[in-house]
Amino acid sequence: MSNESDFAHARRVLPGGVSSPVRAFRSVGGTPRMLRSARGAYVTDADGVERVDLVASWGPALLGHAHPEVVAAVQEAAARGLSFGAPTVAEAELADAVIARVPFVEKLRLVSTGTEATMTAVRLARGVTGRPLVIKMAGCYHGHLDALLAQAGSGVANQALPGSAGVTEATAAETIVVPYDDVAAVAAAFDAHPGRVAAVIVEAAPANMGVVEPAPGYNAALRRLCSQHGALLVLDEVLTGFRVSGAGWWGLEGRREGWEPDLVTFGKVIGGGMPVAAVGGRASVMDHLAPLGPVYQAGTLSGNPVAVAAGLATLRLADAAVYAHVDRVSRVVSDAVSAALDAEGVAHSVQRAGSLFSVAFGSWGPSADGSRADASGASAFAADASVADASVAGASGTGAHRPDVPAGPRNYAQVQAQEAWRFPPFFHAMLDAGVALPPSVFEAWFLTAAHDEEAVGRILEALPAAARAAAAAKPAR
Ligand SMILES: Cc1ncc(COP(=O)(O)O)c(C=O)c1O
Ligand SMILES: NCC(=O)CCC(=O)O
């Protein structure tokens, strides 16, 4: 067993040697490390090399890998049977746990992957409204369903694909893609298709084109536009849900601002490392799902008892101290990344949204009017002010001021224009020094409750050499 021989084996029998493209080292080069085990903040590869892990299974491992109490819950559930194909009380308990944290959710449908959750949300929105079209934002990833693969960020960004082969023109035509952070573009899309938009779907805080923190009032403006036009707002919290706070990104923003989506999707942390995801919302919307309503949705392994046990145990353990710790170590690591890059004169932006962060390479200065660099963004917020004016009384307006919007790329086009070629040498220097980052500049870095002083110390030690490698990088010719 070794990384090289195991990956050669995998490549013979799995396309690209992987079960999901983001795991391949396409954009950073080299051979993916074949993992043998994971515990706490560490992963061990087939060569027996242990590294500090900042992938965290792409988000689910909020508590760290193989938390003993989660593993015990899984073992106990497995001993009672792996799958029943019949309802269990644990599913209702998991729904209770979600509803307690995210009170606008009255009912939940459990599925196995985030993709299924967003697919179900889109079908439900179409079924409820009787309308065909969906508006999504360029650079937002919602899983690999046909309807939402256009300009999808994540692995699609790495492949430099506009979308995916195999998606029919008819399907693509039912998705309207607008730039992120551009309220006017959403308003224009509604105006161009009166009475035909079923839903706007947005990542609660985008983290698949790197992290882009929503500008203050952006999600609220989407809420108002959806209400004005009779469409549903689908807030995709697959990545942010139960990770950035106990009530996800909505808990950091929507609760304070007083808005709610019509549907919310969860994945990743809700399953604690096992395949659980969900779509939730008000009963009046959710009850359109079969068996109560006409929108069909099903799954042999949906609500799987072993997976649900992992999710329940994870949510029960994810208390305020866990979130405070993850917030703190994320800040320590992201500040250290920035300091290391500054020390080498590498222009960059650390992109933060709650405890999520990523690094974008390049320069983004505030524009002369104090807002930001690109003209399209400035016009977006002039439009947002008019949306606020037209909104229902009591809703919070955002205004055209943007001093609180961080500098850095704010949409997919800006993200893609960065000096992405600085990332591969940075990534490999970290890997060589014993720190595993997500193998793409477009992905968020994930800290966990298990990243203690020692693990964080190892990350900090690795950074100066990685920053030197980024400084020495040259663009491909
Ligand atoms: C915001 C968001 N939505 C949906 C998905 C799809 O989830 P899954 O990979 O479980 O299908 C992801 C996965 O990364 C995601 O980040
Ligand atoms: N941010 C993108 C993902 O988390 C996807 C993970 C995977 O497909 O393995």
TrEMBL record:
SUPFAM superfamilies: PLP-dependent transferases. PROSITE patterns: AA_TRANSFER_CLASS_3. GO terms for molecular function: glutamate-1-semialdehyde 2,1-aminomutase activity. Pfam families: Aminotran_3 (PF00202). Its EC number is 5.4.3.8. Pathway: Porphyrin-containing compound metabolism; protoporphyrin-IX biosynthesis; 5-aminolevulinate from L-glutamyl-tRNA(Glu): step 2/2. The keyword Isomerase applies. It catalyses: (S)-4-amino-5-oxopentanoate = 5-aminolevulinate. It is found in: Cytoplasm. Keywords: Cytoplasm, Isomerase, Porphyrin biosynthesis, Pyridoxal phosphate. Its cofactor is pyridoxal 5'-phosphate. Signal peptide: none annotated. The modification N6-(pyridoxal phosphate)lysine is found at residue 268. Homodimer. Belongs to the class-III pyridoxal-phosphate-dependent aminotransferase family. HemL subfamily. This is Glutamate-1-semialdehyde 2,1-aminomutase. The lineage of its organism: Bacteria, Bacillati, Actinomycetota, Actinomycetes, Micrococcales. The gene is hemL.
